[in-house]
Amino acid sequence: MLRIAFDPIYAHPLPEGHRFPMLKYELIPEQLLYEGIITQENVFSPELVDEEIILLTHDADYWQQLRDLTLPPKEQRRTGFPLTQRLVDRERCIAQGTIDGCRYAKAYGIAFNVAGGTHHAGSNWGEGFCLLNDQAIAANYLLNNNLSQSVLIVDLDVHQGNGTAQIFENDPRVFTFSMHGDKNFPFRKERSNLDIPLDDGMADEEYLTLLKNTLPQLIAQQKPDFIFYLSGVDVLSSDKLGKLSLSKEACKERDRFVLSQCKQAGIPVQVSMGGGYSPQIKDIVEAHCNTYRVAVELFF
């Protein structure tokens, strides 16, 4: 059964000026339900992740400042959000949704988080609309509970997964792979185990060739027993922050290739949605929904 983490706390936790990018978290499941791709039985609502699980990934001082809403103003500005209790709860909910998704992925092959992909959050910082790193938290949960021995994180958001890279820079159990815009945010990059920087304006054929020449070899070499996939759609040519030139069709083919590699290798995969900032919300939702459509075709 396809399992998808969604909770109303994802919706509109921010002041008015920040809300447009968040609309997709409501519209994606609505569209999938409308098409009959999913039913309400496929959707689950996560709780708030426990503090002790957060502390497997994030430094205690940083977490306490988030929890107590005492993060210094400069650090709040770095996140892009005014810090509120509802925002912190939302991030905790997202992290637990990704952990729950890991359990479902182990049972059914794949699971989704409608939100997630908060890959700019490092062990002791928040950045770029990310406070807690959901896939890093979930990876550490799996590893520390002996539910996984070797993790591969495939980050195809247009922005480097700098927080994820920093968190796992000294952990040989986790291989971080980020394929991202070279001249895009974050402007101070961390070092993933494998980074593929992309030139501005890269289009479909070159992008897909790079991916197809890289991912199968990575899976063969690393032999992960669990994969996290960050499927940001800010690679689209329409994206106002992306700087790449992929069509919706190529973005869908990207997802098909990644998920088919997981399926063929028999490796469970948890998918978090990541970024998408096209001016038309319908373009964002359609591209994200394609990821679900492909998953249903391949796995169910």
UniProtKB/TrEMBL annotation:
Transmembrane segments: none
Keywords: Hydrolase
Superkingdom of source: Bacteria
Pfam family, one: Hist_deacetyl
Gene3D superfamilies per record: Histone deacetylase domain
GO molecular function: histone deacetylase activity; hydrolase activity
Gene Ontology BP term (one): epigenetic regulation of gene expression
All copies of domain Histone deacetylase, residue ranges: 21-290
PANTHER family in the cross-refs: HISTONE DEACETYLASE 12 (PTHR10625:SF19), HISTONE DEACETYLASE HDAC1-RELATED (PTHR10625)
Protein name: Histone deacetylase
Organism: Mucilaginibacter conchicola
